[in-house]
Structures are given as C-alpha cells and as structure tokens.
Amino acid sequence: MLVLVIGMLVLVTNLPDKFQQLLAPGKIEQVICTGNICDKPTFDFLRALSSELHVVRGDYDEVLPVGDKGALANLARSMGVDVLLSGATHKFEAYQYEGYFFVNPGSATGAWISESSAVCGAETWEKGPLHESGAKDTTEKPGCTAHNKTPEPRNGPPPLLNELSDGTIPSFALLDIQGPLVVVYVYQYIGGDVKVERLEYWKPMPQETTQEPAAPEPVTTLM
What CA–CA distances, in Å, run from 208 to 56, 64, 66, 149, 211? Predict the structure, then answer.
C-alpha cells in the first residue's frame, strides 16, 4: 500500500514543478496531509491523488513542545500505534524512539525550517516509486531497521527532495506499507533536481516461546 505523507503546503502553486509531475493520480492509494492548506485548489490537488484523503484540522492540534520526542512517544503510546506521523516543524525527520517509528514529511513547498533535515540510516536512490524506473545507489549505508533482512525493492519509481535559495529543502514522504515492514521514500528538491532516499522500519514481532510439555499427573490405582 502506497501512502503519501505531505505537509506544510500552504499553496499548491508553490509546489516545485518536478514534484507536481511526480504526484500524478493513479499511483497513490492514500494521502495524509500534516497541515497548512490555505485554499481550495490545494485541497483539490490532494483529493485528485487519492479519494482516501486525511488532513489535520490546523494549528491547534499540535503536540507540545513541537517536535519533542518524549511528547510524541507519549502520544504514540496513548494511541496504541507503531508508526506516528507528525508535522509543524517544516523539516523532514524519520527515526525510532522508545520502540516507535516517527515520520515528519517536512514542507512540500519549502516553507521555512529551523535546521537541516534528518534521515536515520537512509539509502540514496536516483529515483523512487513515483518515477518510471528506480535505480539504487550501491554505496553501503547502515539501515534504520529492526531486523537483518532486506526485502526486494518494489517495481516502479522511487520518492522525492527540493532546495530553495534560503537553504530550505522542500520534501515529502511516500510510505510503502508491506505488512510488518514500512519502507519510507523521502523525496527532496535539491539543486533543481528531485533526490530520493530510502529507509525502512520493521515492526518488532513478539518472540515465540517454546513451552515444554507438562509432566503427566501421577495415576492413583486401587490394589
């Protein structure tokens, strides 16, 4: 299942052209927007990508302090989820903390950010699942995984990335959910080109315990 996680759009007219070309209807099964849609054309743009669209209410549903790992972990714990999506910081982040996996898509249009994006154990891709074909960088990098196994990459294009003159990096995330595995493609617009990074999260599975068969109860016989 492909899920687009996008946020801090403000106006779709500010979305990099190369992002708009990649974000075409028919590829994405669900869209989750972490906020700041300022007009109907921007909402309609997201609605056209998938009929299953979820958008946060606005600036009054933030977790405080904004971006605080402890506060986000408390929310994930209270909701009983394994993966928590958040926004508001205007920078991309993906990391594991206290057994949960957190993804913040950053700002798709390059709205202000306070510091550089952070990617935990990502691999660099030339293209992502939204492109016509994908090619993986062969450079070995540590993966952000909970298990020592790598699934075959899905067929089709990879995810995106973008950079403005003030150092802001427009970004969004595409989640490929495969049962207990979540593959995250980070799209960023850097130097006029779309860059893609890939990382993954495995849901920890409960360890199987083998129990020895109970000893038979002694049998009482009458003599």
Answer: 38, 38, 38, 19, 10
Selected from 3.40.50.1240, 3.40.50.10840, 3.60.21.10, 3.40.50.2000, the CATH number assigned to the domain covering 2-202 reads 3.60.21.10
Taking residue 161's Cβ as centre, other Cβ atoms within 10 Å add up to 28
The whole-angstrom separation of Cα 103 and Cα 82 is: 11
| pTM beyond 0.85 | no
Helices (H), the chain: 17-22, 40-49, 69-79
Q: Tokens representing 171?
A: 């970004």
Of all residues in the chain, the percent with pLDDT exceeding 70 is 65
Give per-residue pLDDT as tens, 73-106.
Answer: 999 999 999 999 998 888 899 999 999 999 999 9
CA distance 52 to 48: 10
CB–CB of 182/83 below 8 Å? Answer: yes
The answer to whether the beta carbons of residues 2 and 31 sit under 8 Å apart is no
> From the CB of residue 90, how many other CB atoms can be counted at a distance below 10 Å?
25
Distance (Å) of CA 146 to CA 69, 97, 170, 180, 185:
19, 12, 28, 11, 17
Burial 181-200 (b: 16+ CB within 10 A, else e): bbbbbbbbbeeeebbbbbbb
The CA-to-CA distance between both ends of the chain, in Å, stands at: 69
Residue whose C-alpha is closest to residue 30's, from 173, 203, 155: 173
